[in-house]
Amino acid sequence: MAAYDPADTHEEDRNQAVNEFLHRLNAFDAERQSALEAGVPALGRLAKIAGGDTGQASKVRRFLLGLYNGPRFPFVLTELRGLDKQLFEDCMSVLRLDARATIKEVHQYFTNGSDLFEKWAKLESKR
């Protein structure tokens, strides 16, 4: 019968901790990749809508501006209730992109994104 060796227990604990860390890291990477794959195209679709002159365009614009600079452009979440299903789903995908991918700020996915978002801010200030 082998003698008890506390070093073996510590080694097992370390191995278990490393395996758990790697599992979580892989899960995070998969979630980030999924957020990118769904969120980037959704952001493009929402940007096209945000340039419009409808009630839904204004809601989408305010949502995107809230992600761009929340303290400057507070967004009332209940406004999402007024969006059609696809726009709502696109907003959720973009929110997930912004929260989970965290590769870029939302305006950085566009060429001259700061200018684009400031243009939307001017449109909203006229409403």
Automatic annotation (TrEMBL):
<feature type="domain" description="DUF7673">
    <location>
        <begin position="41"/>
        <end position="121"/>
    </location>
</feature>
<dbReference type="InterPro" id="IPR056090">
    <property type="entry name" value="DUF7673"/>
</dbReference>
<dbReference type="Pfam" id="PF24720">
    <property type="entry name" value="DUF7673"/>
</dbReference>
<protein>
    <recommendedName>
        <fullName>DUF7673 domain-containing protein</fullName>
    </recommendedName>
</protein>
